[in-house]
């Protein structure tokens, strides 16, 4: 109590120590609401001075104002609040005052605040404003919650003694808006640097989204010189829509402008719409191309203008309502190579777009889909499906479809019928030569690639291909035969309507085939199928200390299918046509040509199919609980070993199809092993053609000829990494700059190490005069290791044993510097070969406070 007496020697009233709490109702005067205050040690009233003294964990609540400290004084005469710390028994100050109001939070050695004028003076203060912290000797606060700092420091480091700060003699802060300073300079590790300016402006965004400038980054490009990239402005129109307008500008000419719009409606939909336009200027490449006619200069793109549209729309699925979605990636053929952000994007040969609406009609088996789709290649070939309509009926029973009777369990009530129709209008700017469709000399065959523009629309539409495909599925149920066999018959029927049907006539003058085209064709196809399957179990009881039993599971399946010969003349799908007057030796003068696109296969099909799968597993005693001797678990030895083939009784020769053998298993719960192969049952002649003679020779233990095989083993050796569900933060894409393949997007320091690999060996055999056997081997390794809690290395490498080179490699080194971070990236091979060294502040608020040194595909000379 001696300390308390020294602090105040004129106490006129004392409340005993304890967690005291009082409420003073608002009287008439300057106090506009109830003041609530409490203290742990004591509360002393000085009635004549109208002063209240609070000691020990003192706290005051006045509207949206909160003040906590070891000692607080309330002066009702002058409307002032005074808060300071108090020394403990060792002389150390405790209970540093913390002041909170709508303008922010302040921690200081001394706080004086007038709750009438809402002005204050705070000494030796630390306050957080947005992502940043402000340290100042003295801070004054006005009624608008604006604060003014003297000898201030601005930093995003949350330590009491920050690693770095921006120092200024004067500083002004507007909550949820910005921090402004006079002349400032950057101080790192208490060492002043020459980096600074005459004034500073640092955004301090509110919790809600706000509009603001996007500061560009600078660099150097191999073809376009120095540049400023991704600078612009972000427009936060409201809580649902935001627009990011950015651009690049290059010292040697050229520019890039992009607009990204993000929209989101909770519980309804979200999406992003972006448009990018680029003027790529490369005078050096233009000059070099004019001097040379070879293709060695393709690495230097010429001057060109490109555009790219990106749109994604994802709805929230709701029962009974349609679903509209979109995924659009379309534009100029060379745009993505000039603006790649990843290896996969640069190497991707095609880009596809889809706009889809689909709906399932409630309480019915019907659903429908309407789609617009587009695909494009880097070679400038565009394919459109405008529109793609689909209507389907899920299989339902005959009783449900054609009668109102209730099922009674009779065998024929298992019959079900399903239906699907798909109508398409296909448009392409590539018109292939007519002869490419038939493989014989055709009169006036040509190849043509049209441009894509509004002027060409009529021509493109006219040369489109329209079709409607109907599919019927008739399932005749499933039946038990001799208790152990499942018998399942079915019938299928399909019919396709198309707008082209060909008629052929040999022209002896030109020695070519003339083609006439009509505007409609009807193609139909039907078949009957049946399958017989069963399951065979075999168990061997071991009764050992660990292994209790081994079980072998076999699932054989025999199927039969019949389809007529649609190549016969009565169906009208093929025409036997004379193709030459003087054929080559061994060739026929007549050829069977299809009269419609996607004609049913010619030849009678009377086929028996066979496949069998095997599964082997052990029943072992569990080691999880040694006390429970009757606890067992299953361990798979072989997940699947399958063999399949077919035999066509109607074929003239080569009736047995190639034999497929597949296997996969998981070893020690770590290694995944897969194997697949194909064997040919027939011999081949010196020209590589199959002859109707089996390879099988029991005396030589030769069953068939291996033509190709593939074996893969992969593993993830870190069980903690396999179980981790850590994912990168879900930031809005519109707020992220374009990713550099040498820079990390997210680094997880929680897992100390990871290591995974995959090894693949492939075998392929060629026959004939160019007979050869090819073996390909590749090894891929990737993982990470934490050298310390702050150092992390990640790596990836792929090695091609066939060519004896590293196909791909990437090494990343990360260092966590608390409020800073360092990353080193190195890609030693490929088009993206280069390195990057970056040291930058972590805070997104100071994302441009970085030091970078790099050599990449864009600036490597």
From TrEMBL:
Protein name: LPS-assembly protein LptD central domain-containing protein
InterPro entries: LptD (IPR050218), LptD_2 (IPR045659)
Positions of region (Disordered): 1-25
Superkingdom to which the source organism belongs: Bacteria
Positions with biased composition (Polar residues): 1-13
Any Pfam family: LptD_2
Assigned GO CC terms: cell outer membrane; transporter complex
Location of the LPS-assembly protein LptD central domain: 179-682
